[in-house]
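Chapter summary example.
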Amino acid sequence: MASLSKVILVGNLGSDPEMRYTPNGKAVTSFRMATTRRYTTSAGETKEETDWFRVSVWGKQAEQCNQFLSKGRQVYVEGRLHARNWEGQDGQTRTSLEVTAERVLFLGKRTPVSVAEEGELEPEDLPFD
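The structure predicted for these 129 residues follows.
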């Protein structure tokens, strides 16, 4: 039986990207992003719910995200969801869900720009100032 793990998010970066390199030299960039859902209750009250996600991007795409994205930028992320276990300060094991990006689009006032693993991106191609 086949299975699939795919997530599509459109939201804003909650922090500047942080890039590092693995011991074998592969780039990985991480950032937090928020998505907000607005809705109206049956009483007519407008509410907002914000969800936060940790996103990891690898390779050339990671370098481009680190170079051109910043806190507050709107971004489209397509990737796979996975669980990460870690130990909290209280010694308890915790689990968080994270997204490993396979495709990133920088969104802005002009046409979105796709940052593909094999593609090249020049600063003048970006849709924001």
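To summarize the output: The CA atoms of residues 87 and 93 lie 4 Å apart.
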